[in-house]
Every structure is written in structure tokens, then in C-alpha cells.
Design a protein that fits this description.
The structure is a homodimer of 213-residue chains. The first copy, chain A, has 213 residues and is mainly alpha-helical. The first copy, chain A, has 9 helices and no strands. Chain A binds a DNA duplex (30 and 30 nucleotides) through helix 3.
Chain lengths: 213, 213
DNA sequence: ACTAGATGTAAACAATTGCTGACTTAACCT
DNA sequence: AGGTTAAGTCAGCAATTGTTTACATCTAGT
């Protein structure tokens, strides 16, 4: 049932877009990135299991088989997304002055959408049942909490300061919870609170859990 | 709630067939409950999309077709789980004295497992893409936050006290975040913190966000 | 220009999904 | 007892899943 005459005369008509035929260069790196972006959006908003590789490929405007080619499998693509998100989280959280933590959290939480830190962390929380993915997630969370705790006197191998680390993780969890709740449920007034609405209570929260030394 | 009736009902089907079929009682209500319990566990720990009806039926030791019979569909079963969890959350949170909120939160967070309030709320956060499920979730979250806020001076239709409601929702989100983080990632020391470890910081957190009036 | 490898496409695979219909078996009632 | 109906079983469907395979087409190096 080959409907296509296999001749060199058959030229691609491109019936969908009437515009200037966007001469499609073949660029592996670009399609890889397109897939990564689409996958990150889908995984973040729908979760791993609810996302199909065809969803991702369609969003990226790319053939499904290329997922297997470039990432070996759906799980491989997910891990790549997690790694990218992890790198970005480390990059972003690495340069926050200790005295501006509440403002930074407020800003990141207020900024919905998968581009912001909130989206990255939400993605990090998504589970695929894959062991490697769990490692990546754990690594990022540990890094972030230690980053936060070290500004308040926590030092590794100092059992006395473990309380500080616990409190830092609670701050992290609180921020994460707000982000998740905001993005998953239209609960007013939280879900539509602005950065200004959030920064005050958040300062109270951070100061209470991690008093400036 | 998983009390096995000591009666004659214990009927674990021997998969190796043939054997003297243990006399099994037919009890629609009990079967329904078995399915609900198994589904709640699966949905809570694996999420909606990653859970299959066959998983649930096997866990419950019940035939798959009975899910369709008793709950019409997988979505119907999920909604039933959500409704049950919502009822239990309302029942539990309804009777917490305002001055013992930190202790209550600490106790609930420390108590892992799907039986506790933490599990119920984690389940509430799970999404199935179903509109009715979203309504149930929103209703419970609204109820819980208003319950918490009203003890601190919030009144409906008083725009001035909206700040209090926002802060109550932030407390709720913080607790939720800790619960989710603890159950999803072995992040030390948070994931193994005991109730005693948590209650102190939690009191600081609640007092900071919702100062006793 | 011409070939070789990279890139993309189409179709199909086996496995799994939620769900259904016809069937069997147990429980209850006179 | 018998017989009626609820409760449970079985096998299989149609759709969807992730993945692979064979093929087409573009790009780059000579």
C-alpha cells in the first residue's frame, strides 16, 4: 500500500503552512533541545506517567522516533530533563546573598511557569520510579538545603548544627509546598498572590526558622 | 481502618489454582472497601496515571471487573478515594484546638504512611485531570485553610483579614511540602525527623505566620 | 558531482491499558 | 428443596503505550 511514488520528482508540498517554506535544516542539537524543552513542560505540568512520548514529540514538532534516538528512552529523556533542571537550580541558588533569601524565595514562588525556579523544583519532585532520577533529585535537594543552611552556621560533620540543616530543609519544603499548591490548585488568595503579597509572610517564616545569627 | 475481620471471611485466593477453594463470603460492601483501601494506597504512593486498575484489584485480592461494577471507572474510583480522604481531613482538622496547631501538624507530618492526615493530603494533591476531582481537592483545601485562619481572626467578607487567610494557606502549604518531601525523598535529616524534632521548628513557623492574636 | 554518514520519517511491533459482555457461583427467600 | 438475584469470574476487545525497524532525505567532505 505505498501511496507515494518513490521518485525523486515528489517534492515536499508542505500543505499546512502557507508562509515562506521554512527551509528545514537538519540540526541534531536543535531538535534535541526542542525535545528537552517540550518534555520539561509536559513532565512538569502532567507528571511522568501521564506524559506520552507522542505528546512530547508533537509539542516539539519532531518525530517520535527521535526520542529513542537521542535519549535512548522516555526515562532517558526524563533524566536529561532532571539533570538540566538540577544544573539550573544550582546555578540560580548558588548566588543568593544570605540576607535576601526571603525575597528570593518570594520572587521565585511568585513567578509561575516552568521557566522559573519553581518550575524546576516542581519537576525535580516528579517521580518516574527510576533510580537514577531519584539520585539526581536527592542531590539537588541536598545541595540546595546545605547552601541555605551554611549561611546560617551549619557546617558538615558538626552534629550540633544539624538542627540548622533540618530547619533549612523545612524552609525549602515550605517553599516547595507553596509552589506546588499554587501551580496545582486555584486556591485563593494563595494562588493569585503577588510577589509583594508573599514577601512579608515569607520573611517572617524564614526569620523564624533560620534566625540571622 | 484496615482491621481484618477475624471472622470467616479471610479469603486469599491461592493463585496456584486447583486447590480447595477456601470458602469465601460474598460481601459487596466489604469488597468495595477493600478496593477503596488498595486504591488509596496506590494512588497516594504512585499517583493516578502510574496506577493501573489491575494493580489495585490484585492488591485488594479482588477481580478487576469489580472496579467497573462498583465505581463505574478508574476515575470514579479515584473520586471516591478523594471524597473519603476529604471527609477524613475535615473530620480530623475540625477538632484541633487553636493553640495546639503546631503540635498537631508535627504529629501528622511525623506520622508517615497513608493512614495519617499526611497521606490523605498527599492523595488530595494527586491529579487525575478530572474536573470533579479538582473540585473535591479545592473544597478540602479551602475548608482546611479557613478552619486554620478563623482561629486567628479571619472572617469571611472581611477584606482586612484576607492577609490572615493567605498566611494560613502558607502554613498549610508548608506542612504539605514537608509531607511530600519526606515521603518522596530520603533527604536527611528531614526525612527521618521525629515528631519531637519537628514540633519546635514548626511552632516557630506557625507562630511567625499566624501570631496568637 | 558523488558518495557516506548523519538526520528524519513512516509503519509497525509487542505489551499494556481501561473496560465490557457473557458466563458461573454463591447467598438469600419462601 | 428450588429458584431468583446479587456477587464474582473469565476472556477478550479496542485503544494506547514505548520502542524498533526499514526506509527516505538531507548535509558534508572529497
Amino acid at each position: 500500500m505505498t501511496a507515494d511514488p518513490p521518485g525523486p520528482a515528489s517534492r515536499k508540498a508542505d500543505p499546512t503552512t502557507g508562509g515562506p517554506a521554512p527551509r528545514r535544516r537538519r540540526d541534531a542539537a536543535e531538535t534535541r533541545q526542542l525535545l528537552l524543552d517540550a518534555a520539561r513542560r509536559r513532565f512538569t505540568s502532567d507528571g511522568y506517567a501521564a506524559t506520552t512520548v507522542r505528546d512530547i514529540a508533537d509539542d516539539a514538532g519532531v518525530n517520535v522516533a527521535l526520542i529513542s534516538r537521542y535519549f535512548a528512552s522516555k526515562e532517558g529523556l526524563f533524566e536529561a530533563c532532571l539533570r538540566a533542571a538540577g544544573d539550573e537550580v544550582r546555578r540560580t541558588t548558588g548566588k543568593v546573598p544570605p540576607d535576601q533569601v526571603p525575597e528570593a524565595i518570594a520572587r521565585q514562588i511568585a513567578d509561575l511557569g516552568i521557566a522559573g525556579l519553581t518550575g524546576q523544583l516542581t519537576l525535580l519532585l516528579r517521580s518516574s520510579g527510576d533510580a537514577r532520577a531519584d539520585e539526581i533529585r536527592l542531590g539537588v535537594l541536598r545541595y540546595s538545603s546545605e547552601q541555605l543552611a551554611s549561611a546560617r552556621g551549619w557546617r558538615p560533620d558538626e552534629p550540633d548544627s544539624e538542627r540548622v540543616l533540618l530547619r533549612a530543609q523545612m524552609v525549602l519544603a515550605a517553599g516547595l509546598g507553596m509552589a506546588v499548591l499554587r501551580s496545582s490548585t486555584p486556591l485563593q488568595p494563595l494562588s493569585s498572590a503577588t510577589e509583594q503579597d508573599l514577601v512579608g509572610p515569607l520573611r517572617d517564616l524564614v526569620d523564624a526558622l533560620l534566625p540571622p545569627r
